[in-house]
Amino acid sequence: MTDRYGAFRLNFEQQQKRAKELLKAARSGDPAAVARFKGTSPKLAEAQFLIARELRFESWAALKQHIAAMRREREAMNASALDSDLRTLHIRCGSDLRVPLQEAGFCGDFYEHSYPYLIGPVRDGTDCLRQRARFLVDTYGDSRDPPLTYEPVLRALECDERTLRDSADYERVVIWSEGDCYDQLVLIRLLGHYATHRRPPRLELVNQSDFPGSVRFIGMGQLPPEALRLLWRTRGVAGPAQLELGLDAWRALVNPDPRALAAIMRSDTPALPLLAGALHRHLRELPSVVNGLSFTEEMALALLAERSENLMWMFSRMNHFIDPLPGQGDLQMRDRVLGMEGASAPVFIRSPGVDREGNARPPWTDVLAITELGRAVLRGDVDFRSLNPPSRWVGGVEIAVHSVDWRWNEHLRSCWKRP
After folding, report:
1. At 1, is the pLDDT very low, low, confident or very high (cuts 50, 70, 90)?
2. C-alpha distances in angstroms, 347 versus 96, 137, 409?
3. Which residue from 75, 194, 280, 349 has the fewest beta carbons nearer than 10 Å?
4. Which fold has domain 295-417?
């Protein structure tokens, strides 16, 4: 049976074998292997270093130590729970860690806070939950079974708020986050709450941007349970500096003027080192000064300019190869790309398609083909906003005909108001 965690559950003997095979290939004159070595006389130590770097380790010794640590944690998973010293609540922006944390030997409670702040709308005030509920129903309602309806969704959001307020009753709350937009925007929402409300005696963060393995790290849901035990040991306290920055960033996120958020991004956010990158990626969803496209829209048209393909393939390419900070889910990507169809003239044409087994699963198997107008938009010859695409949200900024025309300048890493 294939190990679902094989890409991050590394085997030392296998890596030793890979290093020896690389050395053998280089010594036999294989061009690709030779090109990886600096000198004319490849050595085993150099081959080991190259394999370690490929797996995102600083050295072969670090690789060896990591594999040994993972083995120790795996063997200890049935011992006493790591969080049993305090009554603990684990908060995550999705359900992906609910079961793995239990398998890893944690006994604390689990709370999922998963509103997609990265795609909005994100406003504060008395009506904000009603606005979010309406957005969730309008955007995702028909894709669920049974379909989402307004009142139950609103009640669920209200229940979430109560759970967040009551979390202060725990002795310890631990927030598990990655460095992408989805996680970091949820993180500042939570920190903003704790900065202005009652909070638990201990508030801790597991904030992770990478984990060694043979594939690109995208999220903690990829990791085996023993890896979560290792990450637990890296957690830090969310103190005054983190709470203050979280609150400032949250207030800037809900602001219909994005310039304050851009200023926080340019500060490099030292109290929350992963936040600046996430804010940068988030702000790139504003219309570009070059062509009026968001970064996701631009990625989509650039892919289609190379070949016509289905939405499922496009999501995989963006997530695993193109997006510098992947984190949006398939539904968010779907909404951002297919939302372009609402423009006054088409930038791509969509037609029915099938997957490798011959099954149609619209819209994921639908084939998208770029139009000449789409190529003109991609080049910057036509501004996409001039085609009146449907309104959308970037945090607290509504991108709509009746709203301020905010633009993102990637070269200057700043936003400005178009006249």
Report:
1. low
2. 35, 27, 22
3. 75
4. Arc Repressor Mutant, subunit A (1.10.10)
Residue 417, judged by CB atoms within 10 A of its CB (0-12, 13-18, 19+), counts as exposed
End-to-end alpha carbon distance in the chain: 60
Beta bridge pairs of residue 91: 111, 175
Q: Which of 139, 144, 160, 189 is nearest to 395 (CA)?
A: 189
pLDDT in tens, 366-405: 999 999 999 999 999 999 999 999 999 999 999 999 999 9
Helix (H) or strand (E) holding 130: helix 128-140
Residues 6+ apart with CB under 8 A from 5: 222, 223, 224, 227
309-310 vs 202-208, strand pairing mode: unpaired
Q: E-assigned strands of 196-251?
A: 202-208, 236-237
What b/e sequence results for 345-367 when a residue is b if at least 16 CB atoms lie within 10 Å of its CB, and e otherwise? eebbebeebeeeeeeeeebbbbb
Whether the CB-CB separation of 55 and 11 falls below 8 Å is answered with: no
HEC profile of 328-349? CCHHHHHHHHHHHHHCCCCCEE
For the chain, give the longest Cα–Cα distance.
71
Q: Where exactly are the structural domains of the chain?
A: 12-75, 88-248, 295-417
Residue 407 and residue 283 in contact, taking contact as beta carbons nearer than 8 Å: no
Strands 88-92 and 109-112 come out as: parallel
Identify the residue whose tokens are 């999220």.
Answer: 219
